[in-house]
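Structure tokens please, single chain.
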Amino acid sequence: MNILISGGTGFIGINLVKKLLSQHVLILTREKKKNIKNIKYLECNLSKPDSYRKQIKKFKPEILIHLAWEGLPNYNLRISNINFQNSKNLIEEASKIKSLKKILISGSCFEGNNLGKKINEKSTFQNKNYFSSAKTLLKNWVFEFHKKTNVEVAWIRIFYAYGYGQRKNSLIPSLIKAKINQSKIKIKTPNDVCDFIYIDDVISFFKILIKKKFSSNIFNLGSGKPTKVINICKKILGNDFKNLCIIDKNSKIKNYYWADILKIKKLYNYNTKVSLDNGINNLMKNYEY
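Here you go.
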């Protein structure tokens, strides 16, 4: 199977590519990298379709997995607009290739409003920033664009993924670093409630959609379990919590929601396999931050 991937050197991408060594994969990247077995890297610029158009046409992808979103965690208007246009260009170019049958796109729980409850795929959303607005605009565009084509689109709304390769300044890596180094850490939103999903469970769902047929749809991808940020802090810091954790007592709740994963349970018998405790333990044993 020929799989075209953007963002293959990012957090989700590097973990996904490890599981696709038996496939033929072409990864679009801004950095020059050496090819590995069936994994080939194409150094290009997503803002310049001429830098990849001929190569992806020759590759004849059956699946496009679009993960790229440059500039994170910068959510400003300029960066969001650039990413929207880059995404649109890539999808349009790939869709011209007759071999293409599926597109898998990484969405985000940031598309959602702070509803204070479980969110399903039909929940009403209110964009919170330029990033979420750009993601929503892309989602609406891509489904409309492929209405009358044979290409099926999966918009995978990923909640709070964590694991190997995550940005070092994210919550869980920062807490592990504080624990290991015995350094203090300030938590700005201790009362937020989020849905944390281990990276291996994220990748397992992508593999399901790569292998199985599906109709164009939105899929929530999370653990389906709400967890308070302060409880994550206590899990990781343990007996050092009081000494190392500085809590902002005046903080307001910014996020309070988790994923309803009933759809993927019904359609694919999907359940997460890695508990939050086990996921954190795995990271702490293999500390590389």
